[in-house]
Amino acid sequence: MPELYDVAAIGNAIVDVIAPATDAFLAENGLTKGAMMLVDPKASAALYSKMAQAVEASGGSAANTIAGLASFGGKGAFMGKVADDQLGRVFAHDMRAIGARFENKPLVGGPATAVSMINVTPDAQRTMCTFLGASVEFTDEDVDQETVEASKVVYLEGYLFDAEAARRAFAKAAAFAHGAGRKIALTLSDSFVVERHRGGLRGFIENQVDILFANEAELLALYETPDFDEACEQLLRHCDLAAVTRSEKGSVVLSKGETLHIAAEPVEKVVDTTGAGDQYAAGFLFGLSQGRSLHDCGRLASLAAAEVISHYGPRPQVSLKDLAASKGL
Q1: How big is the chain by its Cα radius of gyration, in Å?
Q2: Is the pTM of this model over 0.70?
Q3: How far is Cα 91 from Cα 102, in angstroms, rounded to an integer?
Q4: Which residues pair with 115 in a beta bridge?
Q5: Which domains does the chain have, with CATH numbers?
Q6: H or E segment at 254?
Q7: For residue range 189-201, what is the model confidence (pLDDT) as tens digits?
Q8: 3-state secondary structure of 131
């Protein structure tokens, strides 16, 4: 089958509501700074009523990565579940407007489209309260075999590991991908996800994952060690390629043949870290899909992450293709 897409992603289809907040606001509302917690629709609505003036934008981790990929000039597809409601139609429109394939049928008669309330403190840390709604209704029946087999890389969002049906979808996608000679990439998404599903994630990584994305905290949680180097050694026993972000320390790209240290791209002011990991993955996967060196993949990833943390919102506000060209990439 011809390669029609650089990356096909499977993830939660979510609309983000992003607002500035203080540490006191987080404490008053029982929120754990920098974490993502799941809430029911009542709690989501209650928090929304207390938040400062917000910006609404289509989001979801893997969907944000596809948006970044498109900004680089890549061709992407997204699989996720929205409801047949206003937010669901907005999400679908936004994905198609960037040139990404999104053809999953909306859910009728079930929960509403997912929404994430994101409070950003002055230090740019984002604290998320997410109502998963229709997004958790994604099942193996929603995995499109033709799209998977026509994609160079299939990128899976770790947040979906909370839903058993989505885990079955991951297994089905991995079978299709590997059967067609394609690569499976996984992002760990959040250290709390790792804590909840450590055993399942380790098994999936060892048996199905070719490329892993994680931040330092997630990697340490995965292998239950405070030693970064030890965690990296264990990871390389289980997958062929990994990129681990370390905030201002940059990132480390691990492969069987080499370990690369990639410097963080300078940012004049960090405004909002929402989407940093998503855009890092976008840059890396775009570079990989174009046959670039691992060093260049890391540089493109760092560039995309730096762009997104310089403003509110999880998706690029400038052309990443033009930005990369201006840097000689």
Answers
A1: 18
A2: yes
A3: 10
A4: 15, 131
A5: 5-12+60-110+137-326 (3.40.1190.20)
A6: strand 251-255
A7: 989 899 999 999 9
A8: strand
